[in-house]
Amino acid sequence: MSTRTFYFIAILIIIGIIGTSMLGVKLLNHTQETNNTPEVERIDWGQKAREIALKDERVQELAGGKPVSVPSGIIWNETYVELFPSIGGKIYRIGIDLNNETVKFIKEEKNQTTLDWIEKISKSVTAI
Fold first, then answer.
1. Domain range for residue 60?
2. By CB neighbour count within 10 A (0-12 exposed, 13-18 middle, 19+ buried), where does 128 fall?
3. Distance (Å, whole) CA 94 – CA 83
4. Which of 110, 30, 42 is nearest to 70 (CA)?
5. How many domains does the chain divide into?
6. Which residues have C-beta within 8 Å of that of residue 26, sequence separation ≥ 6?
7. 92 part of a folded domain
C-alpha cells in the first residue's frame, strides 16, 4: 500500500470518527419503544424533557415569558436528557432527570463545537 493510499484511508477514518461524535439526537418526533407491558408503549423522551424544563422556575425566569426554542438535545438514556434551548439569544445546556422529573442544572453553553452543532441542527427549529 502506498503512503498516499494510507493517508487517504486515515483521513477517511478520522472524518468518520469526527462525524459520528458530532451527531446528536434530534428531539423532534423522537420516540423510543419499551416493552414493559404486553402492548408496546411509545414514549417521547424529548417531549417529556421539554415539559419538565418549561415547568422549572429557573427556565421560566430566563425565558421571561417569551417562547423557548429547543432545536436539539441529547437523549443519553431513559433517565437523562440534555436540552440546548435558545433563550434570549444565548444557548443553554439543561440537564434533565426524567425519573425525578427535575432540572439538574442550567448553564450557558460556551463550547464552540457544541454551538456549531446546534446551529447546523437549528434549521428544523420549533418554538415550545
1. 24-124
2. middle
3. 5
4. 30
5. 1
6. 72, 121, 124
7. yes
